[in-house]
Amino acid sequence: MNVDVVLGLQWGDEGKGKIVDYLAQKYPVIARFQGGPNAGHSLHFEDTSFVLHSVPSGIFRKDTVNVIGNGVVIDPVIFEEECRAIEALGVPVRERLMISKRAHLILPTHRIIDAASEQAKGSSRIGSTLKGISPAYMDKTGRNGIRVGDILAPDFEERFHALKSKHLVFLQQFDYKYHPDQGQDKWIQAIDYLREFKLIDAEYYINDCLHKDMPVLAEGAQGALLDIDFGSYPYVTSSSTTCAGACIGLGFPPSRVGKVYGIFKAYCTRVGSGPFPTELFDRESDLLRERGKEFGATTGRPRRTGWLDLVALKYAVILNGVTDLIMMKSDVLDGFDTIKIATAYKINDILTDRVPYDIHFPVVPVYKEFRGWKKDLTKISCEKDLPAEFASYIRFIENETGVPVRIISLGPDREQTIIRK
Ligand code: IMO
Ligand code: MG
Asked: 241 partner at 20 to 30 Å CA-CA among 20, 41, 171, 258?
């Protein structure tokens, strides 16, 4: 049996929560492999909406085991709040969720460092979610981090204070006001809550599942264009968001990668700073934001919006080895007379269909125009009822990427989903 992987092909917020929740019917195990509470995965079902940050999106499915892998960073306080809110809905979270002992912890001082360094960057700030993601991964790769398994060690508190002291020294370089014990009491309490969960050697668990023919679905956070290596560096997150990251973040071998579901929106959004070649600034931008409710699920920030960028999408398809494309929020484009897709970039008057190493130069997108369908897609439940203009939009994407669009989402609800043959 294999691990199938679901990941975002853009700058995050593609709708991974809805799709993982949808696909979860077929998988007994759902596992998060990277990122942390910077993620905001929204689920809508039976008149309920829920935003998940650290917990995998299979948590609302009875009989589904959810795993937080070693590649994830966990803020115990956010984790506790999230789990208690899920428990309040009658879901037995502790029975359905297991956590890798190798996952790293986000300390209160990681969040302070995140805020201080963003402030120091001034106009070149990343637009971080300020959840302490980058400082936590810095400590992981710098071999200073504290892992989930460490909370069971007798000297855990000493380790915590030793790392906190290092952070306070580091913070001296910044002109930033904070209280050294900010958030500490809550954090220590939340560690007690975390101890009540099943803390496991998740790499053994995942590989045992595969040997027992139990399929696993790996749930990515963020998106390919925010990847630490392949994203628009330095305007990226601090983890490997591409398919290879699933192997690292869960501990299964590359030979076990099965299907790779690549999720993209029918247009583009980005939250935070950094290059966005097809970004719109006018009425069309506002229309996309309003119709798509494009406000951050984690931070509430308005998202930047623009047309679909096929140059970037093809790049993401190559990096991930996508086998199945999933197109989200198609209905948001319903009202447009003309819809555009960028097929190339012009950089210094040179035409290219590749994402360059550095896209800080002015990039002028070259567009192909499509006639809008001007019909309400949200009520359509059968592929044959889709408007011809919409079908040609999809066909163009399939021809260009060489990958079939298997699932089309026409609204936030589980029911508003069409599976294509
Ligand atoms: P999901 O999983 C959209 C962005 C931030 C910022 C950059 C770095 O919901 O798709 P970080 O806090 O990671 O240091 O911020 O990455 N970012 C996201 N944008 N969706 C996300 O997650 C994101 N997680 C991080 O806005 O630009
Ligand atoms: Mg998000």
From this structure: 171
- Quickly tell me which residue has 């501990």 as its tokens: 251
- Helix (H) / strand (E) containing 161: helix 156-171
Give CA separation, 21 vs 130, 320, 347, 418, in Å.
27, 21, 40, 15
Is 15 touching ligand 1 by the criterion CB < 6 Å? no
Ligand 1: centre distance to CA 195 (Å): 28
Helix (H, G, I), strand (E, B) or coil at 332: helix
Contact 22, 417 (CB under 8 A): yes
Residue range 368-390, pLDDT digits in tens: 999 999 999 999 999 999 999 99
* C-beta of 241 in contact with ligand 1 (< 6 A): no
Residue 172 CA to ligand 2 centre (angstroms): 32
pLDDT at 322 exceeding the cut of 80: yes
Ligand nearest to the CA of 10: 1
Q: Which residues pair with 349 in a beta bridge?
A: none
When pLDDT is averaged across residues 103-121 and rounded to a whole number, the result is: 98
Which residues make beta-bridge pairs with 37?
Answer: none
pLDDT at 292: 96
**Atom 13, ligand 1: residue with shortest CA distance:** 237
**Is pLDDT above 80 for 360?**
no
Is the pLDDT at 297 greater than 90, yes or no? no
- Model confidence at 279, in pLDDT bands (50, 70, 90)? very high
pLDDT of residue 383: 94
**Burial group, residue 75, by CB count within 10 angstroms (0-12, 13-18, 19+):** buried
- Per DSSP, 254 falls in state G
Q: How far is the CA of 13 from the centre of ligand 2 (A)?
A: 4
> Which residue from 128, 239, 270 has its CB within 8 A of the most atoms of ligand 1, so it is best to mutate?
128
pLDDT tens-place string over residues 149-162: 999 999 999 999 99
What tens digit of pLDDT does each residue of 176-192 get? 999 999 999 999 999 99
Please give, one letter per residue, the 3-state secondary structure of 93-140: HHHHEEEECCCEECCHHHHHHHHHHHHHHHHHCCCCCCCCHHHHHHHH
Q: Is 215 exposed, middle or buried (0-12, 13-18, 19+ CB in 10 A)?
A: middle
Omega into 234 within 30° of 0, i.e. cis? Answer: yes
78, 192, 249, 308 from 202: Cα distances, Å: 21, 21, 10, 37
Separation of alpha carbons 142 and 200, rounded Å? 24
Angle between helices 184-194 and 76-87 in degrees, nearest 10 = 60
